[in-house]
Hints:
There is one protein chain. With 449 residues, this protein is an alpha+beta fold. Strand 5 and strand 6 form a beta hairpin. Helix content is 22%, strand content 38%. It starts with 10 loop residues before the first helix and ends with a strand. The strands form five sheets. It has a six-stranded antiparallel barrel with strand order 1-2-3-6-5-4. The protein has a six-stranded antiparallel barrel with strand order 7-8-9-12-11-10. Helix 10 packs across helix 12. The radius of gyration is 27 Å and the shape is globular.
Amino acid sequence: xxxxxxxxxxxxxxxxxxxxxxxxxxxxxxxxxxxxxxxxxxxxxxxxxxxxxxxxxxxxxxxxxxxxxxxxxxxxxxxxxxxxxxxxxxxxxxxxxxxxxxxxxxxxxxxxxxxxxxxxxxxxxxxxxxxxxxxxxxxxxxxxxxxxxxxxxxxxxxxxxxxxxxxxxxxxxxxxxxxxxxxxxxxxxxxxxxxxxxxxxxxxxxxxxxxxxxxxxxxxxxxxxxxxxxxxxxxxxxxxxxxxxxxxxxxxxxxxxxxxxxxxxxxxxxxxxxxxxxxxxxxxxxxxxxxxxxxxxxxxxxxxxxxxxxxxxxxxxxxxxxxxxxxxxxxxxxxxxxxxxxxxxxxxxxxxxxxxxxxxxxxxxxxxxxxxxxxxxxxxxxxxxxxxxxxxxxxxxxxxxxxxxxxxxxxxxxxxxxxxxxxxxxxxxxxxxxxxxxxxxxxxxxxxx
Length: 449
């Protein structure tokens, strides 16, 4: 049987060779209209530059180079004077047709005036709809009847390490600056002086002061995160809030103006090596040991028991009791959340629904953790009605009649501030409080029960 010979025409290979060798036109859209260009053209008009003003009161004796000792001294013992206007810059993105703008809480914190400017040159006053410091998310609304360009929120659940991303913002006042990079890591934790935030994206797309609140886009131009922070000690390390987290918070802020703290009804203690050995647990097990399940709580109804070891919340690892409550900050009311726990040597997953914290729980936390009975005082602060005998507060010298002004840096201006401060005690071992007795004010650290 003979071999069949097939002639392959040379036209196609010659054409390909000609196209590869031919010089590319500078106007070739395939070379210039990259995914980045298309994404910026699509989303850029919806990005706003945010300028805020706030009044600060300085010392009547001038400035001492920002020395915190002198700042605290004059704040505690002299009436603040000399109000001054301080401006700050940030970014945001319009997320719906009625002019709601998503940004960071720290961009607009304590602002007395907020203005937003679009890429097309239009400027508007903006009002604060709601803010949540625990997740560093805020929602503004532009005061205008004009139609504004806007972009829908995408999803961050399928982001991949190494995926290309685009940041747009207002770094150092340079409006509508575009930078590119990749997703460097997922689910990062960053620590500030006030708190620890979990679940951040890490990116090497340049993020600088003024970028905060601006959008992070994927290659399709979808809004996948909100640029939030930069690692000051290194270059090319920035952090962004995943849009799936932001979207839950935004919904609460638009509907309620705030995000109500939630509870599951579980109290913990850290899982020490001694406890691991005593309970016969795997030596490398990390988690938080359940030491109390409160009555009529979501955890109680879901079947969580004292002695369980919680290892994950919402798919994210738990390493300490404090770590659990920090991760709970990003959970909203009525959200279903999965808990992975170890019981009797076996892992099991339990789903439960988060609920708003009942008022009696706050009073119980203050009694149990601080050893204090408090009563709201007109004008701010809480009067100590009684101090539990044997408590750290009693050993420190607190007594009935003292005025509690702040807990861990949060001024106790009203019941809501006390509620958030009390919930923030969960998982902590110590608290810094500010107490007034007579004309004197004292900063006191007490151990928490």
